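Field reference: sequence -> structure
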Amino acid sequence: MNPGKITYSAALSSGIHRELVRHLERSDGQEDLCFALWYPSDGATRKTALLYRAILPQPGERRVHGNASFLPGYFERAVAEAAAENAGLAFLHSHLGPGWQGMSDDDVRAEKTHAAAGKGATGLPLVGLTLGTDGAWSARFWEKTAPHTYERRWCTNVRVVGEELRVTYADHLVPPPQPKEELRRTVSSWGERAQNNLARLHVGIIGAGSVGSIVAEALARTGIARLTLIDFDTVEFVNLDRLLHATRRHARLYWAKVRSLGRGLRNSATADGFSVHELEASIAEEEGFRAALDCDVLFCCVDRPWGRSVLNFIAYAHLIPVVDGGIQVEAKPKRGLWSADWKAHIASPERRCLECLGQYNSGLVSAEREGYFDDPKYIAGLPENHPIRRNENVFAFSLSSASFEILQMLMMVIAPRGFANAGEQMYHFVPGIFDDPGFHTCDDGCPYPSLIAKGDRTGLMLTARHGLAEKTRSSRVEARRSLAWRDRLWELLDGHDLV
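Structure field:
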């Protein structure tokens, strides 16, 4: 798949999925149909239709006769509801077979002939979806390419998001990976089908620091073929005790963290056609935000509230699960290590959001957006034990935290023995105990469940100019310019890490 080419996908929450399956799967063995409404989620290179409401047929609005057909009044009602809600229209029907479904000539005619009316009334393409007998969806957009001309654009995948992440892929666009000797023992652990699902996920890692670099390494070695790294920071000598793949040379030459990590991942990845996109940006900047929307799963490896709030928003509004964690270490003068705790959980529909989990404070989001976190006077005025001032950590703690997050993601995707939700996990290094896992939904009054599948239609703007990111990138450019001759020399010696 060409990374620069626009791709398409569809996603729906598990709640909407269950409602649609109940209607479309008939006990009499006949096919059925219905309409639904969708909102757009536009990433940097991917357009996604987020289905958020079903419009089921009323008596007399469709005929079931082995196949199924709808009457004009049903289509007109669905179009009117889509236009009233500033949404797109989706047409759904069932097929009597498993897996990703193709289209018959009748299917094509039914969708293509209504594409113009759908586009004209809503301003968005008609989206068609087909349900297989195993609960798998296939999907396509009908894009206007010329006057009175509509062409089908197949989605690369359809995602059902809830406690479990269920993904159906278009094999002709994203073929399953070929078996490799390097992955023989991995595949033997959970089977070829699970590996095919994992390998084709597009995973984003937000934050290429101590935890993010280990998460990325684990994913690359597990056979994930496509990663996106989003981080604006620079490799420094103080990072080298915890930053995987970073070297003294990278620190001397002011490499971006995503650059040093991306280079290392290319050497250790096990998937054929492995690709890693290195983006020197913040998730709170528009470029970073849109790149994240191209992904199927996101790992939150940032520790500041603004980034976490953006990712929390994406998990619900854009239906992209966010695997999150955190480390808190406390050392006391003259007593050494006093406590070290780390946690892992996933934010998605049917799970608790990051704000309700206490992973960030919404008041501190405003403070960070206004630049106070980059003001030494503001930081100096915070209590010594304030999370913004704490920075103790060691590689072993990052390693364990990253492992927790990877296991959360694997359980969500593989669902061994039907278990997809490990719950909210917390480990206390002192005295070496786990809390009982939590299985909660959001607190009363939390706004995030009301944003599920609203995508670009929420009316909220969480991104903005990010002063620290801009300053860091500018400083890196200036520093590297002064070392340009040495940098060129090291590039010529690529692969010889002489430190």
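Note: The chain has two domains: 7-169, 182-476.
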